[in-house]
Amino acid sequence: MISKKAMGISPSPTLSIDSKFKEMKANGEDVVGFGAGEPDFDTPQHIKDAAIAAINAGKTKYTPAAGTLALRKAVADKFKRENGLDYKPSNIVVSNGAKHALVNTFMAILNPGDEVIIPAPYWVSYPEMVKLADGVPVSIQTTEEDGFKVTADEIRAAITDKTKALILNSPSNPTGMVYTREELQAIAEVAVEKNIYVVSDEIYEHLIYEGEHVSIASFNDKIKDLTIVINGVSKTYAMTGWRIGYAAANDEIAKAMANIQSHASSNPNSIAQEAAVAALTGGDEEILRMKRHFQKRRDFMVEMINSIDGVSCSMPHGAFYIMMNISKLKGKELYGTVITSSDDFAELFLKVAKVAVVPGRGFEAEDFVRWSYATSMDNIVEGLERLKKFLSGKYE
Ligand code: PMP
Ligand code: GLU
């Protein structure tokens, strides 16, 4: 008999699609994957070299639970250099990926029944993480026409006396939306006025193709004190498997997070921490190279999708995802199945054309499926050719 809490948590749809895709591939099926948002590039060599050197130097023991001082200093320097934010190493908690940093955050700030506002479409894990910490997720729906953006007024209207926090994710997974400085400033004013925390997930900050990244924490001391900034090395440095993410918060929250982590998991992997220092101090060259590839892929995909009858998409300005609108296909019959939902579409597309995309339901975006373009141009060309053939009913 499992707990009520465990029964209320659904599996990650992004990770389930990815494992289904990997299983089909291992079985020799000719499948193309656009599921999990995971850079296809290898981790840069200087980062791998730092990890090998760490092993040879015997850096294979426990470190402080919140991360080595060297890494927390490198993270604090990064915040100063890139975001104009002053943090001490004691404000930084390094965790097993940004996912773990987010779970620690909700554990540290939520009491049972506290509400957390989440603009939708959102990354699938946010509501489940809030529930894990006994909080109540409250979504605000945004639309494609409004660029998938929530306004300060909409946030104000959603705040109740139970609201404890707001989650922001700019650039966004899954929509690729990027908030402007002015939009963030207006949201920050509401957060300060209503005294609610802002959990700002900035993991895609380096992947912006139009516009600039602004950390909401950087406007003034009041909003900085209320913001927990989440970031990590997974996406920026193609280091998804290394599992290093981090959070920056005020003294009280950072201490609570470090305490929680000291019992739950202790320090993140000592070797990966050494590699993360090399990543954060090694310059931008590799990041820019990967970004150029992502941008080329995005431009190609958006143009192709919009040239195919029955589907469309808007231009995402950041991250590496495209939300394809499938609303015109709903009610239509394809290969003997009437498409009634994003799940129907994704299942049929995988079964018939052997292409894995993530259905929008998990993002609270029922009229969409998500493509990740963190995959090779060859795969992208192949995946879109299959989409065209699939929609014109040409598969057997
Ligand atoms: N936040 C967002 C918005 C993400 O897309 C991801 C991707 N997994 C994460 C956090 C977590 O990243 P990781 O745990 O690999 O650092
Ligand atoms: N965040 C990525 C995605 O949305 C990786 C999978 C996951 O951690 O959910 O695809």
TrEMBL record:
A Pfam family this chain is assigned to: Aminotran_1_2
Example of a GO biological process term: amino acid metabolic process
Keywords carried by this UniProt record: Aminotransferase, Pyridoxal phosphate, Transferase
EC number: 2.6.1.-
Gene3D superfamilies, sorted: Aspartate Aminotransferase, domain 1, Type I PLP-dependent aspartate aminotransferase-like (Major domain)
Domain (Aminotransferase class I/classII large): residue spans on this chain: 30-387
Keyword Transferase: yes
Cofactor(s) it depends on: pyridoxal 5'-phosphate
Listed GO MF terms: pyridoxal phosphate binding; transaminase activity
Family: Belongs to the class-I pyridoxal-phosphate-dependent aminotransferase family.
Protein name: Aminotransferase
Source species: Candidatus Avimonoglobus intestinipullorum
